Amino acid sequence: MSWSLYDLHGRRKYLVPKERWAFCDAALRVGGETGTFCAVLAFSGARISEVLALTPDRLDDGNGAINFETLKRRQRGIIRAVPVPSALLDCLDDVHGYRAAQRDTDQASVHLWPWSRTTAWRKVKAVMLLAEAPAFLSKPKALRHAFGAEAALNQVSLTLIKKWMGHAKLETTEIYTSLIGDEERALARLTWRQAKRKFRR
To answer: How far apart are CA 15 and CA 34, in angstroms?
Structure first.
């Protein structure tokens, strides 16, 4: 299958960093379960179904990570640990009380968000609207791509991005090498030196 970060209309499928952070700010303003769900999507690069499958016992304070089951595989039980900010774990505890739930065997395996995929998708779209994201990017997949894109732009190794995102093949992860980063823009600007004068005419 051929993967691309651009759709058939030539539009990108990912949020650029300023759009991603605007989404995070909007999620924190909304707060509650919607806010935590959106924040986990933004900071982990996980698929929407993988976030919905989270339970308190998958939140790993000692490792500073969230342990996701990779669901797009034929084999079940493939777990990947994705490092996340400690502030995100604290926020999850404030809203969901997962640290106390981890000490209760009945509560430790209860889903943090008891929603359907449709409900989750709708909540993400509402936060995207609040963040003033372009309409064609108002979907959870844009957050997953944004995570991979920003990691690649910050020169995180492809093998590590592959692990964090749960890709089966490195070829899938390699789509993030096609992005325009700051260094490429700086080089391009060298060819634009006369542009300002030309456009002022």
So the answer is: 19
